[in-house]
Write a structure and sequence with these properties.
By secondary structure, the protein is of the alpha+beta class. The protein contains 3 helices and 10 strands.
Length: 144
């Protein structure tokens, strides 16, 4: 141990030993990598009415941009309930993924039926602009 480390340990800055990381914590950290988006496949948040407009605006509107797709999101508010609807340009099949452990299967948005959720749910959308097994484009995670 170097002199600065010994001094820091003596002053209580460094623990004498470290605790083992619980397996549940390590498993959650490994699972986070499953939720990562492939490089270059992330649609970034370009607009959020909650952040860009003073006062409460209902419904909430968000826009995500990527070179291959633009996604418009509308979140209707009814108490604690939230109804998410979305469209893409160019028009593609959209899916919604709710963050949970273990990861849930994404739900397709079909026939203009909104995705029902709750205030505070963490979700993201995905579109697949190509064919032949190309990686989907995901939005950033956002709260309903």
């Amino acid at each position: 141990m170097s002199a600065p480390e010994a001094s820091a340990q003596q002053d209580g800055w460094l623990p004498e030993h470290t605790d083992h990381v619980p397996e549940a914590v390590a498993a959650a950290a490994r699972a986070a990598f499953v939720r990562r988006t492939a490089p270059g496949r992330l649609a970034r948040l370009a607009f959020d009415s909650d952040q860009d407009v003073l006062g409460t605006v209902e419904p909430r509107r968000l826009r995500f941009d990527h070179g291959a797709a633009h996604l418009e999101v509308r979140v209707a508010i009814n108490g604690r309930r939230r109804e998410l609807s979305a469209s893409s340009s160019p028009e593609m099949v959209l899916t919604v993924e709710r963050y949970c452990d273990p990861p849930a299967t994404p739900v397709p948005l079909v026939d203009d039926r909104p995705f029902a959720g709750w205030q505070g749910d963490l979700v993201r959308l995905a579109v697949n602009p190509g064919s032949g097994g190309s990686e989907p484009i995901h939005t950033e995670w956002f709260r309903l």
